[in-house]
Amino acid sequence: MQTVIHTENLCKAFGDFKAAYNISFEVYKGEIFGFLGANGAGKTTAMKMLCGLSIPSSGKATVAGFDVWTQTEEIKRNIGYMSQKFSLYEDLTVLENLKFFGGIYGMSRAEIKEKSQQLVHELGISQFANRLVKSIPLGWKQKLAFSVAIFHNPAIVFLDEPTGGVDPITRRQFWDLIYQAAARGITVFVTTHYMDEAEYCDRISMMVDGEIKALDTPENLKKQFGVETMDEVFYELARKAQRKGD
Question: Domain holding 49: CATH number?
Answer without folding.
Answer: 3.40.50.300
